[in-house]
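Trying the structure run again after the queue cleared.
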Amino acid sequence: MTYTKLTQQKLESYLWGCAEYLRNKIDAGDYKVYIFPLLFYKRLSDVFDEEYQILLEETNDEKFASNPINHRFKIPEGCHWEDLRKITKNLGIKIQKSMQEIGKANPDTLYDVFGDANWGYKERLSDETLIDLIEHFSTEKLSISRVPDDQMGNGYEFLIKKFADDSGHTAAEFYTNRTVVTLMAKIVKPQPNESIYDPTCGTGGMLLECINYLKRSKKNFRTLSIFGQEKNVVSSGIARMNTLLHGYEDAKIKQGDTLENPVFLKGDKLQEFDVILANPPYSIKKWNQSRWEQDPYNRNIYGTPPQGKADFAFLEHIVVSMSKKGRATILFPHGVLFRDGEEKLRENLIKDDKLEAVIGLGPDLFYNASMESCIVVLRKNKKQERKNKVLFIDALEQVERSGHKNYLSEKNIEFISKIFDDFGVIKGISYVADYEEIKKNNFLLSLSLYIKKKKKTKNLSLLDTVLEWKKSSKNLALSLSKIKAELKVNN
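Done. Tokens:
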């Protein structure tokens, strides 16, 4: 049977339709736990079938066409998608067992990729619900000829964003605003043959954006080496599926706690990378501070961060992980720029001359968080003209509004990245501070210390001026009354 190519719009409608079968049955934040593995399972089966048909037409040899060695991924007997459709009872157990067998048959690429969901828990997902989901996914063929890798990957990213929109309270755990990620990639400028690393990779969006950056630049993106580590089991599985669905089978995505147990090593030292992007979990309180003091990989190069704030631990890990030409962009809360208890860490970072820029971002760019964040730009070896200098960029007003959230437009991204590239000073927007000036400010890195904003003055009519005067007079009278009352009580 011949299938027409699926449009992106129809693909996205089809993918989002699966959520309707789970609505009011499980929390929206858990959609990803079940839908991503099923989608990936369906893709694997359809690609296997497509490969079988191509091989059969070329050789007219069924045995050769069905031989697992001739396929991109192996699907053991009885574990194909169509085998699921034959089951009406205990379907969840069948799904779980089939996923495990597929993982075992592809140990280098698919082992544990499907996550650790309990598919057999009928109180959560009944056989009827699972049958409906299986049949919904069965309405479309997801072969490569019908849905190429890039389109499939884009559909996957669409679903990640939709789940973030729908779940809200859990979104920040696995989704970073893609326009911010685009800016981060544009600043570090990945190049062909370079290694890309994200120590807290979530679902892999930052890694894939580096690939997209090279695509837009019309450079050879296939030569990139991709590495990512993620503590969350579900998110790390999604990241592996995401890179595979984009066609990158060589991407190395590992599950684990980067601070506690970094997995990318060269002997007894951390592996080094050319480009690093990261959005570490903000200010985590429960982390192994005592071990960091005696870190076996010598990552505490600037000191040991306070127990309630692990942000600098991630920064130190990233600095040690940079190659000689390494550069990094990290999303942090503004607190790392000025918080008490981290004074010595900031001082040592500046003395080491690895901080290249601080970019303050506007509000409402992140799910379920109106807080303003900043991008910290690091470079292992700065250009001569940038040594012992730090560029500060105030981009708080560089945002656009869409619905309930802000985003960075192409114009915003181009404006901010050009200031960084030029390393220039624009009054009220950017400033270059040298070591001595930062030292005079006690190594505080708050944007307001270096970029002076013009005070906005109001052009008021005479009536408005009178009203403003009356309002301020009333407030003054109330304040004086409170002070008098307090004095009487104290006397």
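The first strand starts at residue 195 and ends at 198. Worth checking whether this holds up in the mutant runs.
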